[in-house]
Amino acid sequence: MTSRLTNWAGNVTFRAARLHSPTSLTELQDLVGGSPRIRALGSGHSFNRIADSTSDQVTVAALPPMCSVDPDRSTVTVSAGMRYGEFAAQLHESGYALRNLGSLPHISVGGAIATGTHGSGTTVGNLATAVRALQLVTADGVVSEISRDTHGDEFRGAVVGLGALGVVTRVTLDVVPTFQLSQWVYEDLPAAALATDLPAILASGYSVSLFTDWRSDSIQQVWRKVLVDPDEPPHAPDRWYGATLADRARHPIAGLSGDVCTEQLGVPGPWHLRLPHFRMEFTPSAGKELQSEYLLPREHAAAALAALGEIRDRIAPLVQVSEIRTVAADQLWLSPSYGRDTVAIHFTWVPDTAAVGSVLGDIEDRLGPFAPRPHWGKLFATDQQTLAAAYERYADFAALMARYDPTGKFGNELLDRWFPSGS
Ligand SMILES: Cc1cc2nc3c(=O)[nH]c(=O)nc-3n(C[C@H](O)[C@H](O)[C@H](O)COP(=O)(O)OP(=O)(O)OC[C@H]3O[C@@H](n4cnc5c(N)ncnc54)[C@H](O)[C@@H]3O)c2cc1C
Predict the structure, then answer these.
(1) Which residue from 40, 100, 154, 413 lies 20 to 30 Å from 188 (Cα-Cα)?
(2) Rounded to the nearest 5 degrees, what angle is found at the Cα of 47, between the Cα atoms of 46 and 48?
(3) CA quadruple 370, 376, 382, 383: dihedral sign
(4) Which of helix, strand or coil describes residue 246?
(5) 38, 108, 160, 289: which to mutate for ligand 1, most atoms within 8 A of CB?
(6) How far apart are CA 312 and CA 275, in angstroms?
(7) Nearest CA to 41 among 25, 62, 69?
(8) Is 71:11 a contact under the CB 8 Å cutoff?
(9) pLDDT tens-digit readout, 234-252
(10) C-alpha of 99 from chain center
């Protein structure tokens, strides 16, 4: 098939000459083994060229779907091309849950873990931290298995792999017993609460998100996803840190309908229908948008927000909404939360690539003192030296890439820039 596809946002037209969609593992092996340059495409939800290729692109979405729970090991093995929303209900009905999900269920498992995609929660890691094992087709067309139980440090290097080590076909994820959450939205959190109570607010639920449009120094919405206590009906006070409980369903972006969002107003529901903000059956977020995100040590949250507040007149005209979330520290080499409990500051921009590009440098300058790491799948201006300095295991990952893929088969424009050969 000829590929002149775009990503979900439409800001990237892929340059790959062909998009392949094999229906069997052997077909995929022949394809990878025989191609000079090939790159996996997930569901295309990244905002930069990370999934692009100068030659071939391949999707694993047409490989036979799989969702197999192993109760003895507390794992589920799924096809990497599946979207979370395609197997989460089945997992719940089997009595299990994933600990975390991103804001939308539409993204593929393979793509989400490759970029370190995260949700929110002070005690919950990003989606890649659930990975117990990966099955992947490596550059020579061979099927390899790499697992947390048997591959130690190398496994920690391979999970957030940016698609650079091979085409992932199956992913085994840790599961926990299924659980229920209630979701409450608070409006108009005063700026003063940020200065004094931000850590407590961020830790006030299983998963908490703050939303601001930067037009003032207050927070327009706080979304609290709280574990349901089976012995007590869900309850939330009308006033909380000076904010007011919303009396109807909200969308994070002002003026958009809350009907496309997961159920709020404290109605209890299973993890997969509360952790994402957006419902599978609707377009998530704004649809017409670009995104950027920077992840920094959590202790700098208030100072980093104050630093960005100094350039709010640059940010506000371009932003539809910003989201502030937390991620627990992990040990995955290229995870933006590697080694540090994290606060993530996200921007949903208007769809104007040039204007957004012009403000990213200012944002990165302001966040510079706090050692930010950009989200791998979103827009950023960070140069290669800064990336290298931001990741303690950067050189180890470059060496892993060279070992798995000595000819650079899985490279592309961005990877070649971020990890030039010999880095
Ligand atoms: C509306 C919207 C909301 C979002 N919300 C969040 C959020 O809440 N949290 C967050 O952290 N991010 C979020 N993102 C970003 C998104 O999660 C990441 O960009 C993610 O990588 C997208 O997954 P994908 O399947 O679309 O991957 P793609 O964009 O298709 O690919 C991303 C990378 O994964 C690699 N890849 C894909 N499949 C495979 C495979 N089978 N084997 C090997 N490599 C593979 C690709 O080569 C590429 O390097 C959001 C994006 C959008 C559009």
Answers:
(1) 100
(2) 100
(3) positive
(4) coil
(5) 108
(6) 29
(7) 62
(8) no
(9) 889 999 999 999 999 999 9
(10) 14
**Residue whose CB lies within 8 A of the most ligand 1 atoms, among 6, 59, 117, 256, for a mutation test:** 117
Ligand 1 centroid, distance to 172 Cα (angstroms): 18
* Strand arrangement of the beta sheet that strand 143-147 belongs to: 67-70, 75-79, 167-174, 131-137, 143-147
Q: Say if CB 142 and CB 315 are below 8 A apart.
A: no
> Which protein residue's CA is at the shortest distance from atom 53 of ligand 1?
45
DSSP string, 265-318: TT--EEGGGTSSSB-TTS--S-SS-EEEEEEEEGGGHHHHHHHHHTTHHHHTTT
Show the tokens assigned to 405. Answer: 């893929």
Residue 283: predicted pLDDT: 77
Q: Is the Cβ–Cβ distance between 417 and 48 less than 8 Å?
A: no
Q: Are 265 and 248 in contact (CB under 8 A)?
A: yes
Distance 363 CA to ligand 1 centre (A): 23
How far is the C-alpha of 1 from the C-alpha of 337, rounded, in Å? Answer: 37
Burial label for 278, CB within 10 Å (0-12, 13-18, 19+), is buried
CA–CA gap between residue 61 and residue 109 (Å, rounded): 10
311 CA distance to ligand 1 middle (Å): 29
Q: Which atom of ligand 1 is nearest to the CA of 415?
A: 49
- Ligand 1 binding pocket includes 168 (Cβ within 6 Å): yes
Alpha-carbon gap, residue 278 to 78, rounded angstroms: 22
User: Contact, 191 vs 312, CB < 8 A?
Assistant: no
- For 32, the token pair is 């990878």
Q: What tens digit of pLDDT does each residue of 103-150 get?
A: 999 999 999 999 999 999 999 999 999 999 999 999 999 999 999 999
All domains of the chain in start order, with CATH: 67-177 (3.30.465.10)
78 lines ligand 1 (CB under 6 A): no
Residue 3 scores a pLDDT above 50: no
Distance 42 CA to ligand 1 centre (A): 7
